[in-house]
Design goal:
Layout (H helix, E strand, L loop, with lengths): L1 H11 L6 E3 L2 H5 L5 H15 L6 E3 H11 L4 E6 L3 H13 L3 E7 L5 H5 L6 H4 L10 E5 L7 H11 L3 E3 H12 L18
Parallel strand pairs: 1-2, 3-4, 3-5, 5-6
Helix pairs in contact: 1-3, 4-9
């Protein structure tokens, strides 16, 4: 908490319009619903520094983005080891969204997560049961690339496909009062929400 408080204060020195806390599991590991606590506390730090700015956490953005789409049941791909993936699943379910199925890629090295070829997701998603879901999460980790294949996955599945990054981008644009539109980035960034 101390480090995130310090970072919020330092970023607010630049008089930014919005702050993004882009580590989903750092927030989720603090307890169910913790994104609300973190966002409020970090916003308070920016206000105390004389530069109030809204704060978006990727954990909250993922949940909120799925709710914007009306998703009640999802399937998800995570780069994490199985216990951490289960933590993510439990967090999402605590927020009222059922997780039908998931794949834990079990990539142990965080740097490798960032180097994961997004094109691999075009095969990985086939291992996930998507029957009866409302939306698909191609990557529940902001660091794991997925944007280049979001649109292709959406066409293949015939339903909205998001990622933690897409949801975070949507939430940040929304907080800025901007139209959340980016061609080829999936339904949530179609400009219809």
């Amino acid at each position: 908490n101390r480090d995130s408080d310090r970072c919020a204060i330092e970023l607010s020195d630049a008089r930014v319009d919005v702050l993004g806390y882009a580590c989903l599991v750092a927030i989720m590991s603090m307890g169910k619903g913790y994104h609300r606590t973190s966002e409020a506390r970090l916003h308070m730090r920016t206000a105390e520094n004389g530069a109030p700015a809204p704060v978006v956490t990727s954990a909250g953005a993922l949940v909120d983005g799925l709710k914007v789409l009306g998703a009640k049941k999802i399937s998800v791909i995570c780069p994490y080891m199985k216990p951490l993936t289960q933590l993510v699943v439990d967090y999402i379910e605590h927020e009222g969204i059922a997780v039908k199925d998931f794949v834990a890629l079990e990539i142990p090295d965080n740097l490798e997560v960032g180097r994961h070829d997004p094109n691999n997701l075009l095969d990985i998603y086939k291992r996930v049961d998507t029957t009866g879901i409302d939306a698909f999460v191609a990557s529940a980790c902001v660091q794991m690339p997925s944007l280049p294949v979001i649109d292709e996955l959406q066409k293949a599945l015939g339903l909205p496909v998001v990622s933690a990054s897409v949801c975070t981008s949507y939430q940040m644009m929304s907080r800025l009062g901007l139209l959340a539109a980016s061609p080829g980035a999936g339904e949530l960034l179609s400009g219809r929400y």
